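We modelled the chain as a single entity of 345 amino acids. Its sequence is:
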Amino acid sequence: MMQPTEGPTPDKALASSVLAFLIFLLCLPAQSVEPAEPAEPPPTTVPEPEPYTRVARPDADTVQLEITRRRFTPAEGQGPDLWLVAVSHIGETNYFQTLQTFLDRQKLVLYEGVGDPQSMPESEEDTGEAGGLQATLAGSLGMAFQLDSIQYKRRHFKNSDMTYRQLEKLLRTEIQTRAEEGGTPNPAFVALMGAMDGSSWLGAVMHMGARLLGSSPKLKAMTRLIFIEILGGLKSDMSELQGVTPDMRDLLLVLIRERNKVVLEDLKKSLNQRRPPVSIAVFYGAGHMPDLEKRVRAELGYQPAEDVWLPAIVVHPSKAGLSNLEVNSIRTMVEWQMNSLQPKP
């Protein structure tokens, strides 16, 4: 008679499902340039950037995701300090408080997605399901959501991103163009639009899944751990991931490179002023930073000077009832999955 398999098989299967759910969720903007032309590939004349995320284990029962803000200075001559401030859209409350304090000290902050007060969506119907879904996930996991935690209505904060409607138009144009050419619409684009505008069952299902994740302390801790391992395992530009479908790569190219073009143009305008700000911070999702750093170094002549790491998401596995076997199983599964997505050397 075949002996039963040892180990937490049901939990591992559940963790695998959570992993798939979170990888899709990572592709949603926190909220959202209508590009005149497709974004060029990132420059290849600069070294590959160091990671902006890492997994840390400061003690035997603490695992945390750490995210850096990286300071850049001109390689030649003088110029303002430029900070690339990477961020996770959900995180601990004190993480966003620390970020707010730092951003308030800068002379100019170019930020992602929320929009200027005149163009900010006034209702969930305007924002679609993207922000609502991530806010639901944050609440389920006992964390905070970026758009609820950061105060953007500061005089030195400037929106440097697509508006939601422009992003929606860009994605719908992609779908329409493929249809007119006789091709099948990009499934990843269609899925994202369904989640963003609530026009399909996908948004409702993902909201239900996000709420389920907070139904027990153990499941909540498991999800936090998966989130930490996924984000901490991103070692390269997400738009260059090799182990995803071509449709998903096309989606990532739009969400990362097209939006980074807007940031570069705003940076160039600020640096070319007669009296540029003495410090500029670019406040964007961590997935944007490798591509953005390449462009900052190649096009603006800046080089890295300093890293400051902050704990963004923290979990205490044993306190939540996770065994070492379960923790190692989750870590191994995520590590294998993330390695399969990285660009081949």
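As a brief sanity check on the tokenised model: The first helix runs from residue 9 to 26. Residues 9-341 form one domain.
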